[in-house]
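**Backbone description:**
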Amino acid sequence: MRLLIAEDDVALADLLGRGLREEGFAVDLTADGASALELAGRVAFDVLVLDVMLPRLDGFAVTRILRGQGCHTPILFLTARDRTADVVSGLNLGGDDYLTKPFSFEELVARIRALSRRISAATPASWSVAGLYIDSEAKTAQYRGRALHLTPTEFRLLELLARDAGRVVRRERIVAELWGDEDRVQSNTLDAFVRLLRHKVGEGGGLIQTVRGIGYSLRREGE
C-alpha cells in the first residue's frame, strides 16, 4: 500500500515515515500543500494523510481541489484543531477520517488500514458504463455486447479510464498505476497502448478521448 504523508513538522514526518515503512507501507513525504497536490495528481496513492495546517496550501484546500478534480483517494486529516466545527468542515470537504494530535502511532496505522479496507469493499467487482461491461474479477470486458480480447495492460488501462468515466485521468497517474515508475516508461508507450485499445474497441476513437498535454478521458453515454 502506498501512502502520501503531508506534514510540515519535519521531526514528526520523519518519525511517521520510518514507522509506517516498518509496518510494510510505501511512503512518500512532503512538507507543504502545493507539493502534496502535485504528487497526488501524478502518483496512485492508496491513502493520503494530510496535516491541516500546511504551508502554501492547507490540508482542507488540497482536499477541496482534489475532490473537484475527481480524485477519490481516501484522505485522513492530522491536526491539533479538534473543535467539532473543524472536524465537520474537513469531512464536508471530502475527507474520510480525522485524527487529532497528539495521537498514538498504533491508532494511525489502524485508521489507515480501515480506510483502505473500506474503499476496497466499496469497489464493485463489475459495472457498466458508456456501453462497456467490465468484470474486474474475471478480467473480461465487453463493448456493446461484443467481447474484447485484451492483454492484461490493455484491460487495466480500460478499467482505470472506466472507473473515472467522464473525468480526465492524468497521464502521470495512468503510468504510475500501470507501470509503477514513470522513469522506466518511454513517453510514447502509453499513447501506443491507447491506440491499440481504441482499435480493439473499434469505436473510431470516440469513446476514449485525448485531452492534449494532460491525459485521457472515457466518454460517458450521451456525451
About this structure: Helices lie at 10-22, 33-42, 59-68, 84-92, 105-122, 152-163, 171-179, 189-201. The first strand starts at residue 2 and ends at 6.
